[in-house]
Amino acid sequence: MVRPSQRRAMAHHAVNAQRTTIRHACATFALSETCYRYQRKHADENAVIADWLVRLTTAYRTWGFGLCFLHLRNVRGFTWNHKRVYRIYRSLELNLRISPRKRLMRATPAPLAVPDAINQTWSMDFMHDQLRDGRTFRLFNVIDDFNREGLLIEADLSLPAERVVRALNQLITWRGQPQRIRCDNGPEYIGHVMHAWAKQRHIQLDFIQPGKPQQNAYVERYNRTVRHDWLSQWLFDSIADVQESATRWLWTYNNDRPNMALGGITPSMKLTRVA
Question: Domain named Integrase catalytic: which ranges (predicted)?
Fold first, then answer.
């Protein structure tokens, strides 16, 4: 199937070579004379859009059209129509190839309560990965459920309860103290060290039911983004490399990456709007 733009180009070539008339060329290539005489508008602006799309998909290789468009509209402030941006996106063949997954039918869990202010509820969880030399390291992730803001990614080969408490104390120093923290039943959370710390600070620990990760859905969805957008894209030689890269990515997540759960704005933008 030849696109109209290609048929128009062939018709122009035939007429410019003085081989036929406009009317005959349009009939030959199945074009209307209106389409033949159409002049492209905003060609320079289309080049700007294409440049932005190429730069975004190069810098953030896991971003599809939705995130790219929301970033241009909400973060950068451009007013381009989504159909126009998508047309250029498709013409550049930037589409993500995503293989479909077989999904199991499960009962729909009850929706989690959404806090109406910061520091009402935090969620925390662990992740695992490997360094280039095969050593396993852990990540300790903390988010604020109100605006899905990533508050902390702490990386090390081992993260015992004492290290978790120290990281939370450092976080509270600049962020403020939460009313409650949602977590699973990992040994770092259910031990006496964590309980004593929470009691001393008057913070409520909300433990999910064993085997029910959907009850901690906010941080579980955040972990998927961490894995897909950052962790799976790089190989690290040391914990220092992991921590430095995590700090940079966390800034991008909070300030540049549109969040679908927030209506296509970034966590920092939501925080600014309610300030």
Answer: 111-275
Q: Where are the domains of the chain?
A: 4-37, 42-92, 121-273
The one-letter amino acid at 244: E
Instruction: Quickly tell me which residue has 């910061």 as its tokens.
Output: 118
161-175 and 192-201 are packed helices; what angle lies between their axes, rounded to 10 degrees?
20
Alpha carbons 174 and 221: distance in angstroms, whole number: 25
* Residue 166 to residue 39: CA distance in whole angstroms: 64
CB 223 within 8 A of CB 150: no
- For 51-63, write each residue's pLDDT tens digit: 999 999 999 988 9
The rounded Cα 28 to chain-centroid distance in angstroms is 48
Q: Could you identify the residue written with the tokens 């060329």?
A: 25
User: For the structural domain made of 121-273, what CATH number should be given?
Assistant: 3.30.420.10
CA quadruple 86, 89, 90, 96: dihedral sign: negative
pLDDT digits (tens, 9 = 90+) for 119-163: 999 999 999 999 999 999 999 999 999 999 999 999 999 999 999
Specify the DSSP class assigned to residue 4.
Answer: H
Please tell me the chain's helix, strand, coil percentages from 3-state DSSP, rounded to the nearest 5: 50, 15, 35
By three-state DSSP, how is residue 151 classified? strand
Radius of gyration (C-alpha) of the chain in whole angstroms: 26
Tokens (6 digits) for 250 = 């966390």
Nearest-angstrom CA–CA distance, 8 and 22: 11
Torsions phi, psi for 127 (to 5 deg): -135, 160
Is residue 65 within 8 Å of 89, Cβ to Cβ? Answer: yes
Q: What global pTM score does this model have?
A: 0.79
Taken in order 158, 162, 165, 171, the sign of the CA dihedral is negative
Q: What is the DSSP letter of 104?
A: -
